[in-house]
Write the structure tokens for this entry.
Amino acid sequence: MRPAIRRSRRRRPPPPAPADPGRTGVAPSAFSALENPERLLKDIACISGSFSTNLLQFGTPEQVRDEAKKLLDICAPGGGFIFMTGSGLSHVKKENVVAMFETVREYGKY
């Protein structure tokens, strides 16, 4: 006996349009591999996040500073970058969070 496959004929409504249809946000996981993501997105989107919480949990403050600066150097030129972690900050080293915030305060200015 073959299993029955049912498909709904009901269509889902389209997602709501953004408040400003000319801009949107993108949270890529692979932007660290790109040299100039702002060239691809130009003035249509901002880039957000992707700082590793694993590094905050298991790395050293120096490794955190280096990675935060690298992410800012890649994604922040030209504006439109929102620095954030990939998930919450539970179970991370306090000294690593302090190093991350200090680095963002120092290098994350436009």
Notes: The radius of gyration is 19 Å. The CA atoms of residues 18 and 24 lie 7 Å apart.
